[in-house]
User: Fold these one by one.
Assistant:
Number 1:
Amino acid sequence: MSVENKNLSEGYWDIVMKQFRKKKLAVWSLRFFYFMLALALLADFVANEKPYYCQYKGNTYFPLFRGIAVDYGFANWNSEFVNADWINMEFETAIFPPVTYSATTIDIANSQYKGPFDEQEIKSFHRKHFMGTDQIGRDVAAGMVFGTRIALLVGVISMAISSIIGIFLGAISGYFGDERLQISRASLWLNVAFFFFAWYYAFQNRAYQLSDSMNGSFTVFFAQIGLSVLIFCIVMFIPNLIAFGLKRIGFLGKKVAIPLDILVMRSIEVINSIPITLLILSLVAILKKPSILWVMVIIGFTGWTGIAKYVRAELLRVRNLEYIEASQSFGFSEWRIIFKHALPNSLSPVLISIAFGIAGAILVESGLSFLGIGVQAELQTWGKLLSQAREEVSAWWLAIFPGVAIFISVTVFNLIGEGLTDAMDPRLKQ
Amino acid sequence: MFLYILKRILYFIPTFFVISIITFLLGQIAPGDPIELKLKGGMQSANQQSSEKLQTEKAYLEISEKYGRHLPPFYFTLSTSASPDTLYKIRKKSDRENLERIIAQYGNWDQISHYYYSVRKLEFAVMNAPKDTLSESTFEKRSNVRLACLSLYQQYEDKSIVNQLEAIKSLVSSNSEVVTTDSQKVSYKPLASLEQSYVEVENAYTAVKEKATPIKNYIPSLHWFGLGNQYHRWMFGDKPWFGENTDLTKTSSGLLRLDFGKSFLDDRPVASIIKDSLRWTLLLNLIVLLIVYIVSIPLGVALATQMGSRFDRFMTLVLFLFYSLPIVWIGTLMITFFTSDYYGDFLNLFPPYGLGKIGDEFGTWEKVLDRTYHFILPIICLTIGTFAYISRQMRGSMLSVIRQDYIRTAFAKGLSPRKVYWKHAFRNSLLPIITMFSGLLPAMIGGAVIVEYMFNIPGMGRVSYDAVVQRDYPVLFTILMFSAILTMLGNLLADILYSVVDPRISFTKKMG
């Protein structure tokens, strides 16, 4: 009896995890992903030119922590550190981070491509450039650490955007199909008419606010976008309110089917018809100011089609299952059924898509920064480090280390994706 | 079958137009003024004569007409009732954008246009003011007034406009002292002639602020422009479709008649740029496709038939790693290690970039050999990923086929494995590979950007990279359109091939 209970309580995810754990490589990839995540989050503490702790002229300081507080405006530097030349400072005692440079630190003494085995002009061993330097004397190891942050950020944020769009569109097109979403004529006409108004008041009228905030900080921009979306929703609320009343009139109340599936599938075809690299290149080209954040948004807005297709296929299957029919007969609203009942059972393939998508996004980002397009000049990324190898043949460390980083991270995400695919494959389930 | 193809082609049309509109929109919101770029920024200097200014403005108009930029952008615009439907007639992009900003603040076009023309009047008055022979400083003052006028064209914030106006006011009303022949100091206003024009500007600006009707900005209005617009000209051309073209100002035949416009940079027709570059991209990718399909299909089948063997396990791992190899990295590694003698003479194997020998003085074979020599590294770069991808897919698809019952039946009736695999399983397992063919195309064009950039091959990818960097939008967006059309054709071809290979698929009835 107890055995049976145990089997019953073993949910879908338990089975998937069990299958996933059988794949050694996938499990190690997942662990490596955690490692990268930690590296990305703690990049400032792993690679920094300031020591964690130091004794300087008889006083004790914690310059690294203070530096971060200063960056965020919580504290000010002590007078002797305001214009400190951290690299050449002599401390009585000091504990340094593993990499004693940050990505933007310029070590002039070791500029012009100093390799790991070349003779470097350093004060002490802990200031050694383990992975060499680039032309202007930036440390490659530090660039690698901060590059991890950029790569993961691009992968995760762009895939987050993709999954939101993809899941939503895939769900509605799969669940409603071409026939199921029926609204009254009044509602349809009013919605179409008001869509223009909503667009007008939310985006066109606020175009200058939006485009001006684009050049400012990203939070301000998000606030402005949020305000626009809010206005859009408020204006779109009006026609639905009116239509609620008009529905009772016979002619206007007649139901019309919205061909959601066709609309969504057509837009997927449009996006898939444009070679993604070229599309991203052209989108990046029209930016006034290059920024990695825009690269993320652009990858996100172009990468949702795969996810949408998966979710659509899943919902096509799920919507005919009996429990959905049951909840329909309860009279639940369609949206509640989609998002509370149908979607949770269809999300597993999305995870696979996301894993492969992150790998793809990292590749795209490294390609773009290799080409020097769309990424701010001051940011160090793997692709940028790699591109510097083109300028100097002797700098093998610039050709190898960042390349290995891109390769490994892409492999890791592909392996996780593979592992998930196998784990979710019902044929393997015993 | 025929009906199906017809239906597919009919679907093709709306998709095509949606893509063209997206591309066109991208070109519209792209920053920078290409015409200004063409004039090499020689538009405005502080000491320009009015005749020069008029000349550059004329040149600006001519160029904008040549590129069709004098037309309204689209069939219709959704804008505010405050902005006039004739705003596009202000040709200069920066002026127009600034006026739009002012309209968004005050919403009264009558006053704003009056203000705009009064600033112009002041500017011309400055340029036409007679030379002052008495005081040296007058020249500098004049240039400063001119500069202030020029910056007024770019100002929309009240504070900065007021600042500029005040600067002009102080310049115009400032006194110069001149020592006359009988050594008497005489004070006079050298720019007194401008005062009247200045007062007009000031009054016009005050009127803009006082008679502001910002509420008009909240009333949407739809302007209809008809067929004479930039999009229509770009897509359908302005030359008549039937009959002789009599109007010499109409120069475009439109994208549908394969007139892609001209490059902003060197006026070369985009069609010829694409023709020249497409050659190399196609050549490279065809070789790659050939290698990939010749090698990876048999490999995939071999791996599937020997599933679980040591060879299979090893190759699966290798293919997986190949699949994850970033093109940027392989390319960089090969360029670093194989194209110079820095790491030893024996490693200096290949040329780092370029096409090799070009020109008539070389024989055909000589050129072919040299070309091959130059193409080896780029081809390796392009091949690895696709090769791994197709092999893996072929293996997977073959595996799923040979698990099926009819294969077991074929074995049971005593057929040789060779016959079972190649005659029974192979054809069915090819199906997914055919659909993949259409998906490969966009990926290959994308991959070509990086490889052609690295190895400096003047193909489509390299050209589009250059177009992005140099903001040569006609080239960039034509390539975008062109590759989209290629991809759609690829999809169509794949669907037709699919129905040829698999007679079970009739497409007449909707499946699922």
Number 2:
Amino acid sequence: METEATVSEFQEMLSERGVTRRDFMKLCGAVAVAAGLTELAAPQVAQALESSVIGATKGNLYPVIWIEGASCTGCTESFAQADAPDPATVVLEMISLNYCETLSAAAGWSMEEAKEQTIEAGNYILVYEGGVLKNWGGQALRVANETGTDILVHAAEKANAVVALGSCAVNGGWMAAHPNPSNALGVQQYLKEAGVETPVINVPGCPANPEWLVAILVDVVLMQRLPALNGENKPSVIYDQTIHDNCQRRGHFENGEFVYEFGSPEEAMGYCLYPLGCRGPQTKSNCGIVRWNHRRSWCVESGAPCIGCCEANPMNPGQNWVEVNTPFYKRHRDLRVGDFVFQPGTVALIVTAVVAGALIVHGFGMKVSGRMDGGADFEKKRAWDAKHPDKSIGKYDDDDAKGGQE
Amino acid sequence: MAHLAHYREAHPMPFVITHWINLVCMILLIITGFSIHFPFWPMFMGVARGVHVFCGAILLINCIVRVIMAFFVKSSPTGGTRAQVADFKTWLPQTDNRHQLGAWIKYYLFLKKDHPLGAKLGVPQKISYLLIPILILVMAYTGFALWAPTMDLGFFSAGTNLVGGLMSMRIIHYFMMYVFIVFMFIHIYLANIEGISPTLLMFFWKEHGGLVYDPEKHTIVGEDRMEH
């Protein structure tokens, strides 16, 4: 079976589609920006494109395997809204999407065979969407007589890199939220446990922004390199700053102009959503720069406080964004002790009030026992000293004037 | 009326100053902290953030300076005396306090009628005061882990990772503030419930007569009325 798609000669391909050199350079500029470079890098991108597999006369497209774990396919849907290059261009002319449960036209045995051949040939990228379910021996995601966990390990072993796409793939996401019955976790952690050393690129988000995956594909496929990653294996250019750092409502935050209630005049004026539980200050992602839906808008611009969907510690499923950020409209998450769920502020206030109440009661005790005017009279001798006269701490002299006797 | 004499030697001027700084910084930190957590006074938000970071830094520096000064400044080991020792010795276990923890607890719970003899700082008092510098360090650490300019430094981000992210770090910072508030309630209550003299000495260096304690004999040996 043919597993490698081919393209016509690069320039020919462009002119056939009515793409002028000028259009091409504009695209290169857009691609450079998507990859986190400035538009000044457009010439390098153009050169990379021209000399890449796409630009080659009979080049091989970069094979990609896209596997669904415990996912809602929301990240696939999101990717299908990619702006420039559009998903059709990516799928047909940039990569060879050899296996994708959602997007592939083929199905069944021939698909599985295509995947197997791609894995055998090597030099491909694995995109894994959704959480890894460890419970029940991985049977929850059993496909083609192979357990879900085996499918991941098998496909990841020979891949050049694994892209863990979406918060679920990064650390379990929704799947790992309490009580996490399926023992969901992220790709990086599972592969580490399984002893697979393939590098993992974590791309959290619920869903992941399409431009983020495109940026990574541009890096890997066109620039032939992995993007610069931070300590959590997330692309630095996307995940090293908070939403708050680049928020368009930041000016209102600085001015102290806040929305306290949906539907209020403050909301109409586009004030800062911080009091409504916005997780922008603690969520790292460049949503406000890349934006969503063909770069038209994004959550905060459209009036919704950030709910922190990009929070995902790859090695800690307990730090999934749902657990960490609910209830979304409160400034604090809920804490849980057994089945008892509470807000930190409520418990802190109750404890403080109990202490204050106890002190007031104690104060009445002090009043009643007559200690408020200088305290009770001092003991003449420590009780311990009275019991242990041979080892007495104090050197009590009966001739000394004793305290509290006047 | 049976308290010990309140002499300036118990709280030398440098410690009066550090105590003032602690008070002002903590009050401002708590007010601004509440405001940062939820902007009750929106127009105050920008100021609150600046004041919060500034007071946090001052509180931390003040704490370090206070601990260092304990080795160079002398203070009285007990109340009711003008004798002085190196201040750090008054923070270690003292003979005057030995076997007195139970007595103090019983006294506070009204199970013991007479006032326990002891050092300048009674047993529960000393233990709780010693927790304060530790608490200040925890607040500084969690605070810097939440402050954008320092949150990405490995020393802080490693801790953030350990506790489960910035939200957990925020909640720890928040709970610790309540520990301060509860401490202040108890501290202010106990320092003043038996009379305002300790407060007048601590803040305004105003002396007050009372019983005289001999740190050598570990007991009360007389009275100094100071013409009251």
Number 3:
Amino acid sequence: MNRHRLQLWLFAGSFAFAFLLQLMPLPQLLLPLKPWWVGLTMVYWAIEAPERTGLGFAFLLGLTGDALTGELLGEQSLRLLVLVFIVLRFRSRLRFFPVWQQALAVLALFLNDRVVILMVRGFAGEPTPPLGFWISPMVGMLAWPVVFLIVDDLRLRLRGSD
Amino acid sequence: MPRSDTATLFAEGTVGTLRLIVYLTLAVAVMVLDHRGQYLQVLRHTASLAVEPVYRLAAFPSRLAQATRTAVATQDQLASENRELREQLLLAQARLRRLDTLVAQNARLKSLLEAQENLGLHVQFARLVNVDLDPFRHRVVLDVGEQQGITVGQPVIDATGVMGQIVEVLPGTSIAMLVTDPTHAVPVVVERTGLRTIAYGSGLIDRLELPNIPISGDVRIGDRLLTSGLGGRFPAGFPVGEIQSISTDASGMFAAALAVPSAALDRSSEVLLLRDQPQPYGPPLPEPMSGPPADLAGPGPAGTQPGEPPSP
């Protein structure tokens, strides 16, 4: 029971930490490099604990994110829904990929996510963002192994300690 | 979790397309509702009890870093910074002296004109909460909010120019949109010639766009742009930027210029909020109808006013 609770804490804590990282300031030059931390965390948990990360969870998490940072309520919900759906669809294959291959998959997922943002903002009548907009998915790809190894290590440790 | 034996690598798994469609529709519905009616404002306002501490928490590491930097700064650095500040103070005081004479002159002229209102600047001091909302939208979080009497639309300035305006107010914090946000526009006037135009945000922190200057307009590189006061949002006369380059737009019908914002948009950590909203823009309200009371008016001619009942 205690072990289960610790797992839940890790689950919730990782998302809280991801939101904080998302809000954390960076020097102006590095700003476009900031990866989508919430997305990375979401991909990890969708692969490892699909019973917790359903579409409903993604929707609610997205609303939380929009209340924190968003301009348009529902934008992050849509992004997370698309992300989680694709990950869950291909979960059985993604799980057994080596990390570098997973990183490539993350790149594809995040590029797709950028297209979703462009669509949403296009409909809302906002101008097209500059080229730096496309850098973030690359950084997301590079950050994936780090996120994966850290969270996976923590999760396995919590599982081991009874 | 029960797993069926037929599950393969390509199985549909636990999520169905139908549920995806339902949730996507829901998300789109929420977005449309919010875009039409600005419901996010209401929700964020209610959620702000939770949101504001998160902002402070996220800003904490950078504040800590700043504090550490100050604590470990060497004597030498501090001394040179001190010297620099002294020089700036001297310069500022010299300018103030000159301003004093101008103020005196202005007061004299104004009393001659019997101008009633005085143009004292009511400002409020605010600090930036160092939080990054979205790298591609230029918005900053300030540490004052509804409790300090902030309202949406108040102009935000720093020592060197216009920074932006308040777009959202939470109880203890508020969010300002910078002049460089791609959805921001500010009416400006070229200081040298008085030419009016509009400066749009470009999405880059060090650039403003002026895409529609008449091709015959007199604009040169280095011209200073001031707020024109038109539009009723920003008071007139605050520096906005300086023209950096001029070219023609794609159609060849207009000259398009790029300008550098005057305000230190990515460096300021203290800002001023203007209290006084500028004078409302537009024609004065129509005067109330005057004339003799209706019962004194004689029986109207054949064509009575459509709005008035014919007098008995």
